[in-house]
Amino acid sequence: MISAIKNILRSIINKFRFNNLKNHALIGENVLFNRNSRIISENIQDILIDDNVMMYGSLISSNGGEIKIGSFTNIREGCKIFCANKVIIESNVIFADNVIISDTNHHPVNPDDRNIMISSGWSSDLWNWKYAASKSIKIESNVWLGQYSRVLKGVTIGKNSIIASNAVVTKNVPENCIVAGNPASIVKRDIHLTEKVFN
């Protein structure tokens, strides 16, 4: 009886969250949210979430940045995707907790520019990443991103690859590789040739 009530309450909460979040993104069928799910965008068309996605993290688009998330992607709690350009995440991608994806520096590099931004006040449009360097990110299908890993602007991660926990990815990752470290480097290749555990 108690578990049935919990399931009903969970369903009501998810529906409420969906109704609130759908004002900020185009959301497919069977997308799961929880109490920590957050979507911030200036235009509803800037963020597209495909069917059968678990989205327990935060999606933050500014300055017209486009975020596209493919089907059966799993974004766990504490994950944040910051976008001022374009972030494409293909299908079957798994984010462990607290992964950060950012296609922008969030601020200008020149110290004088940063001083102007800071002194402009929090409500100024100088804070919306408009004047920060940005470059698109692509994460291809069936990639696994380990806890606390970070993917920086301009990176493409090839399909089937694994990003180790705490790795900082600053350059492209080929398909079927494991990368680790800061900055991340390849520690294993051809993982598609390893022995299968599921038949």
Strand order of the largest sheet: 4-7-10-13-16-18-19
**Total DSSP helices:** 2
Main beta sheet: 7 strands, mixed
Described by the principal axes of the CA atoms, the overall outline is: flat
Which features characterize this protein?
flat, 199 residues, 2 helices
Description:
- The protein has helices at 2-21, 111-119, and strands at 26-27, 38-40, 47-49, 54-55, 58-61, 66-69, 74-75, 80-83, 86-89, 94-95, 100-102, 137-139, 144-145, 150-151, 156-157, 162-163, 168-169, 178-180, 185-188.
- With 199 residues, it is an alpha/beta fold.
- The chain has a 7-stranded mixed sheet with strand order 4-7-10-13-16-18-19, with no helix packed on it.
- The protein is flat.
- The mean pLDDT is 90.
Give a short overview.
By secondary structure, the chain is of the alpha/beta class.
Could you outline the blueprint of secondary structure elements for this entry?
Layout: H1 2-21, E1 26-27, E2 38-40, E3 47-49, E4 54-55, E5 58-61, E6 66-69, E7 74-75, E8 80-83, E9 86-89, E10 94-95, E11 100-102, H2 111-119, E12 137-139, E13 144-145, E14 150-151, E15 156-157, E16 162-163, E17 168-169, E18 178-180, E19 185-188
Parallel strand pairs: 1-3, 2-5, 3-6, 4-7, 5-8, 6-9, 7-10, 8-11, 9-12, 10-13, 11-14, 12-15, 13-16, 14-17, 16-18
Antiparallel strand pairs: 18-19
